[in-house]
Each structure stands twice: as structure tokens, then as C-alpha cells.
Amino acid sequence: MERPTKMRKTLLLVVLFLVMLALPTALRYVSYYGGAIGQRDVARPDLESLEVPTPPASHYGDETIRPGDGVVVVDMAHSNRLEMPELNVLAGRLAARGHRLTAWSDGSLDDALLEASAFLVAVPQEVFEEEEVAAVEAFVESGGRLLLVGDPTRFSYLTDEYDWVVGIDSDASYLNELGASFGITFVDDYLYNVSDNEGSFRNIKLSDWSDSELTTGLKSVVFFASHSLAVADEAAIIRADDDTWSSATDRAGNLVVAAQAAGGRVLALGDLTFMTEPYHTVRNNSQLIAHVADFLAGAERSYTLVDFPHFLADRVVLVFTNDPELGPGQLQLVDQLQERLDESDRTLVLADTADPGSDTIFAGLYSQADPITDTLAGFGVTLVYTPALEMEEAEDEEAPADPEATGEGEETAEEGPETPEGLVAVDGLGSYDMSGTALIAHRSAGKRQLLAVLAASQEGLASALGRLSEGDLDDCVLADMVTLCPTWIPSEELQASWEPAEAEEPEEEEEEGETGELPEGVQGELADGDTVIGDLGENEEHLWMFFAEAGDVVTVWAEMDSPDADLVLELEDPEGELLALADEGVSGEAEEISDLELTATGDYIIRVSEYAGLGGSYTLSFELAAGQAGGETAGDTIELGEAVEGTLGPDEQAEWAFSAAADQAVVIILEPDENGDVALELQDADGRTLEVSDSGYSGEEERIEGRLPAAGSYRILISEYFGEEVSYSLTLEEGEGGPILGGQGVLVVSADTGTASQDGRTSADVYMEVLSPNYDVTLWSVADDGEIEFEEMQGYQLVIWTSGDFQEGENLPLWAYLLGGGRLLLSGAYPAISEGEETAALRDLEVSGSTSVLTDGFAAGEIIELSGEIDAVVIGYEEDEETVAVFLRGPASDEAGDVIAAGVDAGDSTGIKYLLVGLPLYMLPEANQAQIIENAMEWFQVVPSS
Hints:
16 helices
């Protein structure tokens, strides 16, 4: 009977061994799941059911300011579980670095990345096509930055044919389609820490990192829902601690949550939430986001000619290497290049010499490339002639051949070919005959892009410029900086000088002034669309000529480079009489003669000078439109105070354009014939409909009356309800006021969240009490209604943003609203768009000595005591042409005399207009509260509703 007993003992030992083996896992299970027993369908934390307190906020002052205009493309084409507003914090950091986010949702990824410095891919849910993966690889290879971001809580469910959930469709597999190319794998897991976390097992604290620009100055950050990453040790940047576990591997230690690869050009992050509001304020998260912005903005793209013109800046200077007095031949070559640049919203400017601050294209003949010898040397290009070319000035003197240059001895020199020949010698490529070969070279020179396009003949140059414009380089020889292309011109000869094109007009018409030599002192002849650069000497003036017919409409715009120069622009008629003068008398400002209808046919003179005789460079743009009758053609213009007549054909729509300043009051009157049922519509420059008038009765007048919301161009659209033919008259008059067209009332935003410095109060109740009797006012409480977005602020005549004593960081929607032409009044001790970061005690105010509607009702130098003391941001504004001081810090306050309230009106330059009061309004005496609000309404020209 002993045998069964021994067997039972053996079984007990086995069971005990298995229990001991499983005990650590069971303890972790019980600790993590709170003792709950049952199988989980999806290995993901249930975020919605968790009551997690928001971690305490910390402040990080991002002082990095870098001018520029970079683009970070955000992938939205792969069902990404992401909304663009979630990137607001990152977008704000990028804005401080001269970069902006733009969403890509369809079309070619190659095209979308052409002008981008970085590509951001977060939580995708669709497969990347092979060509998209190749586009990303090529983008990174060219110096672009790639940011891959995952989030294990943003997943889809996989279902079977009966819609039963059969699994989880994680973002990890889709991110790995891109990450695999760079040795980065997102593990399909989530990380958790049950012993030391930030309020929840999923909020993991991180403080273990490698030396990197991404981790400089960090002490501790928190990821709120993170994948782990499988990467090489050298790629790891941030690791979780030994108490952080992976849900997939059930192991802890050495779990990577951030990594960098491809020479630092690819960054992978396991968590998205830490970059979103309000989680960006936890510990050093905000500083890490700033480093991520540095990463995205730090790209240095390298481009090839295939990318033309996307590596060029908005303004491109074209310089011909021959005689700077341009003729018809050169101008004809410009057309195809200009058309290509226009397609990408770039401006081509003709100039005599290169502009050191602008991207430049040099174009010309090999024989006249001496002025750019140094530039060619920078490309590794040398031009060798056999024999050396002789300039036209020495026609009576034969140039002796140079045996050393030809390498052919005295016999060759004595015979000498009738037509000179030449070679293009390129480092690393060898030498090529100039005849039949065009040179296209490109390189970066610091911040500038330089291109050179040369050929043996004018026809060859036209071919080369056409290739450049169309990207037709398939049969060319490409090197790092130089591309050599066949011109396919039979027996092309090396042209020694520029041959002007034959005049198109018959000789007998030259007497009318349309062609022929330019009068003495005239710099050149202008045609519609020309932009030229000139350089005035001291006490010098430049003359430019153009031919026009009676009824043509001319616009001339000019600006000098120096902010101290006061440019004067004059227009003389064919009789030499002064026809128009543009002289605003303000240094640094552009001058314009706009939409002037000419009354005579002949040669007109534009005279450019500097009021005080100072020299300097200037840019002049010229437009000439032929006189037209009627308004059936889109793009016709109408001026304030003008009445026009037109006829609509069947199913036609007429469009009239005009320009106006912000707050310009207008009255638009449309009168049809007695049978016409017309509709009148006003749109802004972005095509947004501001107002529609459609009474619905035939023969009735339609009218739009009010004030324009911003400076710029507007369109008047006219249509007939039944699509019938109708004649009409249209009048555009200057009005006397009225509501902001396309606008409504006042929006008061109470920014009542964040950290309160004392009372935890905003001035929303003050604004509502003062404004409600006379204005249509809407209140938005951030605490009650949630964060407000840019779109929700649009359409109001004025937005008032009151933060009281709440401390808030920079606010991207506010900047977007301002830059979009919105009107904004801010008040609070820590305003979101102030330039300052430093705070100082504020106890009283001093009224500035400025004369403005904003200071009405206050006496200059008057001291206003506040109801208490508060630390308020030192604004840092200084009064200038655009800024008017309202209040200064009073004598009892720290930093006494500094501006604490100011109105900023940039006018037509940017359209920005806002009033900043750097303290809570409720701390002012009630009478002063009402006065500053009433002054603001008048300054912003807000129309009362009653």
C-alpha cells in the first residue's frame, strides 16, 4: 500500500513546483487586473472607464524663433486616427521656427513632399502602397525628416463575415511598413507600470535616455499610452525603467519608447498623447515637444534638377549673361520659364545683375559667359574655346590662335577655323562639344539656390530652358551639380553674340512709336506683366517707357530695398505732361499708380526717383490691360465711385473685381432690365461668400451694404435666376458704415482653465454686462464648452479673449484667427500672444500720452490704482507706427513705465489688428472698465445690434 502514497507525494511536489513557477506571473496579473478573473478579448487598457486625475502642469518657455517658411506634411491619407487640432501644441512650436503643418489626404505623395522639410505619420490604419514607401525613402535620402508616431489605444477592430470581432487592427503593422526601411519596428503592445506611475498604470514616467538633441535639458517626461520599439541599441533614445512591462512579451526592462535612425533623419515615438493638450504640460513633455519641433524644422533638403522649381524661393531672379539691355529674343525665352514658375506660385524677376539675397538663374550663350566664370567654377565647369573668341568690337583685327589653348600647333593656328569651337569641361564628367550640348547646372550656395543654363545658340538655349521647365532630362547626362543635354539642333554653331529677333511690325509702323530705338535716358521698354530691378545712383532718376492705346488701363508698382528711402513714382503722357504722381511721403513704403485709364495713344514715360536724392535698388512691376467694354468676361474691375453696364448671355455669370482697405464701407447696387431676375453675391479673395442679395422679383434692384472685413481683393458675382439673357447696370459706391459683411456680433471667450494665480476668475462677466445692452454677444466658457477652435471663432466682428488671472500658454488658434484677418481683444495677466515671458508685480496703471480713440475718456499721465496686486507678464511692446500704447505700468508697480496695454494695427501689410490689455479687467474701477471696452468697440468699429 506504500506505492499509491509515494505517487500522491510525487504529484503534490509536481503541482507545488508548477504553482511556484506560475506565482510571479499570477501576482503581476492580480496586481494589474485587480484580481479580476476572465479572458480579455482585446489586450488594450480600457481608457474610457478610467477616472484618471490630470497630472499637475508645468511651464516651459519656448524661446526659439527662426524665420522661414518651412512645411511639415501630415499624413491624413491612411485613415489615420488623428485630428489635425490634436497637433496644435506641436504646430505652435513649429510656428516659432518658421514652419507650418499641412495635411495630405490624397494625390501623389511625391508631389506632396516636393517642398516639405518633414513628413509626419501618426496612427495610420491603411496599407502604404509600394510607391508611397519608395517616396518616403527617397525623401529621407534627400535630407527630409520623417516622424513616426504610434498609440496603442487608437486601433480598429477586425471582424469576420458575420461582423463578430475577431481581433485588433493596430497601427503598429502600418507604421512598420515605413519603419522597416530604417530598422525601426513598432511592437504591437502597450506599456504599463503598476508600481510607479503618473496617476494610472498606463501613464509611464521616463527618465532614462541617451545623449541626444531630443533629450537635452530633460529631467522627466510622461508617455500616456505607448508602444515599445524594437531597434538596434545605438538607435534607442528613451527607455522605460525596469518596472515598466510590455503587454505583448510580459517582460520588463530595456523597453525602448523613442528611437532615431537614418543618420538622425528618422524619429519614432511610441506615444502620441504626450504631445496633445493638456498632457503636453506634464513634467518636461512641453520641452520634449519643442525638441521634436527642432527635429522637424532642422531638415536640410538636397534637390536635383528633376525637382525644379520646388527648391526655389518665392522670388527668383533671372539674369542674362549678355548685354543687360534686354531685347525681344531674351524676353521670348522667359515666357516658358515664367509659366512654369507661375504654376508653383513663384515670381520670376528680370535683373541686370544677381541679387545676393535671392535665388538666381543665369542664362545665356557660352560665348558670353565671362561674367559668371566664378559661378561656373563653383559647379566644377570650365569653358575652353578653340581658338579664343574675339569680341565684336575688334572686327577689323584678327585674333591670333593660341597653340597652347588648341593643342594643335602652329599649323592649326595659321589656318584657324572660320567658326570658333569650344568645349565644356566638367569635373568628373570630362569634356563635351559646346555645339549640340546645353549645360544646366544647379547648387546651393548657403541659403540661396543658383542655376546656370548655357547653350551654343539662342535656339539651343530655348531648348535647354524648355527642358528645365518641363523636367525633360531623360536623355541627359546627370552628375551631382551639372546636367548636360543634347539640343538636337543639326549642325549647331557656336554663336559668338546675341542676335536680336526680327521686328514683328512692318517698318512703316515704327514711326508711330511702337518700335525703334529708345529715347536717350530711357532704361528700357515695358510690356504687360514685366517686373524689373533698377539701381538708382545719388540724385539720379530712371525712365521706363511703354506704348499704350487710349482706353488701356495701367498699374505701376515700385518699392525700394532700403527702409530709409522715400521713392517717388511719376507717369507722363505722350505729350510729356504729368498724368499721375505716387508719393505717400513715407520712407520704406511702396508706391503705386493703380488701374489708371489712359486717354491717349502713344509712348508713356514712368519716372522713378528718390525724394531726397538717395541712391538704392528698387523693384518695379508693370501691368497694362487693353480697354474692354461690358462685364461678361471674368476678371473685369470696378472702382469705388464707378458705375458700369453689361449684358449676361444665356446661362452666363459676370464677375467684377475690386480692391479695398479693411473696414471700408461700400454700397453695391445691381439694376437689371425689367425682365431680369438677377442675384448679387459678394465674395472675399478666398471665395468665401460674404453676402447675397436675391429679392426673387424680376426687374427689382439688388443691394449689398456694409463694411468689408479685411484689406484685399473682392469679387462681385452677377447671375440670372432663369439663365436668361439680361442687361444690367452695376454701381460700387463708398458707404457710410453698416455691419461687417460676412460677420456677426461679438464672441467673448472665457479662458477659465489652467493654473490660477489668485482668484481663479476671468473678466467675462464684465464684458457681458457692458456689451449686452447694445451688442449681440455670445459667451464661450472653455471650462464648460471645451477648447475653442479657429473655425468656431470665424465670422464674428470681434473676438474677446479674457483669461483673467489664469496662466495659459501660447494658443495656436488665436494666432490663426489673427493671421486670417480676425479682430481680437485680449485681457489677462498672462495673455496667450504676448511677447514676454517674465512677470512683475502690478499695482497701478499710468495712462499713456498717446492720442487715440483707445485713450478717450482718460487723461494723459492719470494714475489708476488696481483693486489689488497681481503678477503680470511684462509685455515688452514699444510704441511705433503700428502700435499705440494705452496704459503703462504705474509708479507703484515693478517695471514702472513699461507698456501694459496696447493696440496693434498692421494695416494693409498683414491685416493684423488686436488690442492687448495685460491685466484682468475686473481689477480696474468699474468706470474705467466700461470706458476701455467702449473705446475698443469704436477702435474695432464694431457695429451695435441695437
